[in-house]
Specification:
two-stranded antiparallel ribbon; four-stranded mixed β-sheet; mainly beta
């Protein structure tokens, strides 16, 4: 099964984004996943694929990064 990012709240709720290629999440217009929310930094975080692993990286966001697990 391919990895995907599932949005669970907000305007993009129920959206799904395939993972496996590098992407940036943030408010910038050139973000792969754009979140129009003042709590999100212009370049908030990135998700990269490296050696079969997914790497989540905070891009010096002003609001920090939190990760939650859902069943």
């Amino acid at each position: 099964m391919a990895a995907k990012l599932l949005v669970v709240s907000g305007p993009l709720r129920k959206s799904q984004f395939p993972l496996g290629t590098d992407l940036v999440i943030g408010r910038d217009l050139d973000s792969t996943i754009r979140l129009d929310d003042p709590a999100v930094s212009p370049r908030h975080c990135s998700i990269a694929s490296q050696d079969g692993q997914l790497i989540l990286c905070d891009l010096d966001s002003h609001a920090a990064l939190s990760l939650m697990e859902f069943p």
